[in-house]
Amino acid sequence: MAISPLSIRILGTGHALPKTRLLSEDIDRDLGFELGQIESMSGVGARWVCKDETQIDLAVEAATRAISDAGIDKDEIDLVLGASGLPYQALPTTAPLIMRGLGLIEGSAEAHDINSTCLSFVTALDIAAARIALGHANTVLIVSSEVASRALPWANQPDVAALFGDGAAAAVVTASEPQSAAICGRLMRTYPSGYEASSIVAGGTRINYHSDPKAFAENAFFRMDGAALFKLTHRHFPAFVQDLLQMSGWSEKDVDLIVPHQASPLALEHMVKATGLASDKVVNIAADFGNQVAASIPTALDIARRDGRISDGMRVLLLGTSAGVSFGGMAIVV
Predict the structure, then answer these.
(1) Residues of the chain with pLDDT under 50
(2) Is the pTM of this model over 0.90?
(3) d(CA 257, CA 207)
(4) Can you tell me the distance from the alpha carbon of 273 to that of 7, in angstroms, rounded to the nearest whole number?
């Protein structure tokens, strides 16, 4: 069933990367592998990793670029949404630090976090659109900033660890004129049977660091069961995409550009084959940036805009999967 479009516009975007670019050949040397082995296993040739930068540094840099691209004064922002899979610290949330880093006036905006792991940007965009439509916000800043390199399983899953990279991206969202830029459809579906297939177990309340620090340390690494994720995605994702298109009143031919989560080069290849979407319409930066968790979709979106692949009136499909497991997508006229 088609839904009524929400008249919102992505007014500006920006992304930021750490200074250090880590090639897969460098990892081969560090791990004692033959040159080319890590890239062969992961499909990723390079990624950026934080050495001196913090998650907040990247967030503020990306947000500053998005605000500049939007052509607004930063004090016009009345809602800051931190949309990352991993927070800067357990408590408080990350968004207030972004607000402070930007130098926004105290009390001039609200700031809080939205977390649906890799789909956090899409979820935050959905919430921003609803807040704008209800008149509860005018200018929303969404920031996804990730330091994925901190908890990678290099010792026992180097092929998984090699998939990830650090980075941040942001977008400024406002209302648009009716019959102009809009969200034409959005959909998210969750399959909890895949909950254990992609996780970092430590860090919340599940394991008490104070009573069992050894277990906490042992579970402070990312783990992924690629086979389980593949089976779940293969079974459900193609129908999910068709339902999203139908809800939006679109067909595959109506889509001008697809901006997916950059899970891995292999995952993107499989997505194209399984859904029947045109490969030349897919923004694919996975081999050069790695999987930047929630920052992947907005980084790819910003790069596509700056490369001239997106222009006013185009129909853009945001698509992705996240730990949990959830599928998410949004059909947007930009």
Answers:
(1) none
(2) yes
(3) 43
(4) 32
